[in-house]
Design brief:
Length: 251
Amino acid sequence: MKNILYFLLLFSLGCKSKQIVLVEGIPTRKLEPGKCYSSVKLSEKEKFTTEEKQPFLLEIRPPIFKTKKVKINEDELIDWNSNDSIVVYPISIRPYSLKFKFLNEELADWVSINEPEGFLFCLIEIPEKIKTFTEDELNKRNFILEKLILKRPPQIVKRYVKRKPKRLKENQYYFEAGHYAHIREAMKTHRDNFGMVLKLKTKLIELGYELKKDGLWNEKTKAAVIDFQNKNGLSGRKLDYDTLKKLGIEY
């Protein structure tokens, strides 16, 4: 669970206007905690795009936990001495989990398209919650504690609609119909990263692209990146981790 989380495939709840789907998975890819993913709307159909024929909403559903009484096995307890020499036992009362967070307002900082439309979300880790108990406290509870158990992992739900709702719920976003690039891992903008752009342009020059060897990102650099992506079966329009990896650049 910690290192693997897939978006589930679609499911239907009636007519298409009320259809609910979970955002479709990234083929052969894992969504990794601590990383961000994006999709941008393109002006026309290209490779690695999905056509959305209807407007749609994306909504985050947070993880759901349920409370369960659990008998603590005394043999599994690990004691820990506090500063005042009182022996206490650290016990997990909520498991490690994950949550999604939209950062759509920052999309322009993550892609190389001017005034982009689309969405950006990150997969954030929620640390395990530990609470300490003394032996007396455990005895009073007969070694039975209430713990939170993960009932449902976080979800991003897609709902097709006919028009934009008058009011959007919290963590809900509206998108027009159109061609959207496949969801891919996103990386912070390279425009102001002089060192990385210098490495990028150096590699492209070695491959025969006519660029000036400096750390400045410009339209000529962007065109060279897109050409390299097209020739190597990579999705174009933005610089991503797959492109850097194909060029042999560590980021």
